Amino acid sequence: MITIGMIVLNEEKYIGLNLAQHYDIVDKIVIVEGADKLYPKSNVTSDGLSSDATASIIKEFPDPEKKITFLQHGWTRRSGANAKCELRNHYMELVGDGILVAVDADEFYVRSELKAVIDRIQADKKNTAWRYPSMHYWKTTSCFITGGYYDVEHIRFWKVRANDRYVRNHNFPERNGRPLQDLGLVRNNRRVVSAGSGFTIAGPVCHHFGFCKSAEDIRDKNQYYRARGEAKTRPTTLSNREAWFSSNVPPKLVLHDFGGTLPDVFNVSAITH
User: pTM higher than 0.90 for the full model?
Assistant: First the structure.
């Protein structure tokens, strides 16, 4: 069983495209909607749900094979990183034994690459976690950014069992007190290569559009990270994120002209700042 697990809040720009991109490749998609109590209240309902069209897009998405489960959790009891553990564990309860693809609504994989990754995981009898690089588009799809926070590569593919849960870190599910990557991790490092009139990252790669959103959305996220205390715990990460509002990127961050191919559901004009 191949399951996409996703948590969402105010993702109307990408959630429909995300479902269209990945629907045919997986067996199940479990989406959990909710908000940390530290999240700015201005763009969240009183129940801790999206104030935009996220829910209606999910509910109205064509689902002939009944793959999609949508859970509206609302405000979390816990806060900070533990809040995301609380939300993610709702989809973990439904994954069972199989392959978990943990993606955000603004993260996409080219279909052929995703199929190849899943084939590799199914053939691998040893490992429990697989890490592939991310390409972070910067404001538009004309360029992507590397360096600092943008060099952090998340593990998005897991071979899970029914009782695995997120306990200490919302990025790392655990089994009997051990993060799954400690039981066997396959690393696939980022490689920037020439493509067309610019550059791309050699695939398979996660195409991340989280910085191709509105100023309001970016501002909400940054306020949330500050409310979590990240000005002290992760000041460089926060400053890298807040550089979005500047016309210049901080030292050690690099912008690359993008010359590659977007995921199947996109064209160059589909995503603009």
Answer: yes
22 domain residue, yes or no: yes
- Give strand pairing partners of 10: none
pLDDT tens digits for the chain (273 residues)?
Answer: 999 999 999 999 999 999 999 999 999 999 999 999 999 999 999 999 999 999 999 999 999 999 999 999 999 999 987 999 999 999 999 999 999 999 999 999 999 999 999 999 999 999 999 999 999 999 999 999 999 889 988 999 999 999 999 999 999 999 999 999 999 999 999 999 999 899 999 989 999 999 999 999 999 999 999 999 999 999 989 999 999 999 888 888 999 999 999 999 996 444 443
Task: Examine residue 8 and state whether it is found in any structural domain, yes or no.
Answer: yes
Question: Cα angle vertex 108, ends 102, 110, to 5°?
Answer: 115
Q: Is residue 262 part of a domain?
A: no
Q: Which helix (H) or strand (E) holds 4?
A: strand 2-8
Task: Tell whether 270 is covered by a domain.
Answer: no
**Which token pair is 35?**
């908000």
CATH number at residue 176: 3.90.550
